[in-house]
């Protein structure tokens, strides 16, 4: 007597996994959950102070967090797990405007139904983690969606996913080193930020982030584009001096530079916006001297008036290696055919999770499908940026004493607000680090989550969830900001 296989009735063209993911019962259950989230989320409509009845339990949670970490949290932020677009509820019952979005991670805000549905479908995978040796196909669908957009205006051809931005940068550096071996030096911009791994904290231009770390990576720093300086000395002379500066490094260490890392719009460094002619001149030198051009858009991607910053500056043809993360959930290193590394250089046990890949792919699709609305000079991101600037100017007009003249270390004067698209900054108190740090915490208490950036002058920065933020709500956010800043004064 023969025993039939339990899968004997399975169609040869459909796996059990495919059946599970397409199951009406699964999708009905997901819809039920998403509908419940949507109805709960809809109850959050405005900021509110902490619930006095939750204070003791929240203080206990904060202490537990500090005991685990070895120090207290920078902000007393522990989410409840529910929000509504740009509004988020904390476990103390308070609701705040989230204007930093996980330093740019949550571009579609909180409790976004579409992304929750994707996450739930990804959560039924047979394993939580995917890796290089064993993976489901979601990782490749994520990369396909990303590459489809990247290839429109660049030579980028391949994608390698990783678990974080610093790891994506590590992979990019390895690709550049291998291609240009035995070159061991890198060029980066002053005030750059690359992550907090041992190598990346050495490249990043912040001494506090590498205290006690042995320096083993050889880095030469170029000045980032400075509009005030360029205007003062004339663009041609400014660019000529910068090209001379770059050639000095290359001539001093001939054949020893593997790559030049370009942040086309700096993030941690101060939301500094570059210039096409400046970048092109430096990239022309790199191309002539056989140095890899690495575009780091981990914080920039998706937020400028074009999806890719290299599109904004029309520099895609120059890019050899590219990194993206934060908003994409999964992080990735992209590279051209010429920089496709040898087997074994890039690996790792984990690459990510099913929900991460599915949500990341969906975010790319949402930005792609909404491109005509989001991007361009008249797109919603540009309109949001203009509305932000108007709020800053109005605040400065009401409180000019909060906005003294802002000068850098060389004495050049800077505007009180800046950035581009969804990268927004303004500079009160003359850029004082201490006062801006106090203001950020006071503004948090008043109902808005923001953060700082820069290295002197320092700035208040925002990375708001623009696709789900109503432009009419900017005055409500700045009401919180004004109350908080008044406390610092």
Rg from C-alpha positions? 24 Å
* CATH superfamily label of the largest domain: Type I PLP-dependent aspartate aminotransferase-like (Major domain)
Which regions are unreliable across 5 or more consecutive residues at pLDDT < 50? 1-8
**Overall 3D shape:** globular
Taken as a percent bin, the fraction of beta residues is 15-25%
SS-derived structural category: alpha/beta
Please count the helical segments.
Answer: 17
The number of distinct structural domains comes to 2
In round numbers, the mean pLDDT is 95
CATH level 3 topology of the largest domain: Aspartate Aminotransferase, domain 2
Biggest sheet architecture: 7 strands, mixed
Total count of strands: 19
Provide structural commentary.
With 489 residues, this protein is of the alpha/beta class. The protein has two domains: 43-111 and 378-489, Aspartate Aminotransferase, domain 1, CATH 3.90.1150; 129-371, 3-Layer(aba) Sandwich (Aspartate Aminotransferase, domain 2). Helices cover 40% and strands 16% of the residues. It is built from 17 helices and 19 strands. It has helices at residues 16-21, 24-41, 55-69, 101-104, 113-122, 138-150, 165-179, 198-203, 227-233, 235-252, 276-288, 309-312, 354-369, 371-374, 380-398, 433-446, 474-488, and strands at 79-84, 87-90, 95-98, 129-130, 158-162, 185-189, 218-222, 257-262, 292-296, 321-324, 331-335, 352-353, 406-407, 413-414, 417-420, 423-426, 448-449, 451-454, 458-462. The chain has a seven-stranded mixed beta sheet, sandwiched between helices. It has a four-stranded mixed beta sheet with strand order 1-2-3-17. The protein has a four-stranded antiparallel beta sheet with strand order 15-16-19-18, with helices on one face. A hairpin with a 4-residue loop joins strand 2 and strand 3. Helix 5 (113-122) packs antiparallel against helix 13 and helix 6 runs parallel beside helix 13 (354-369). The termini are far apart.
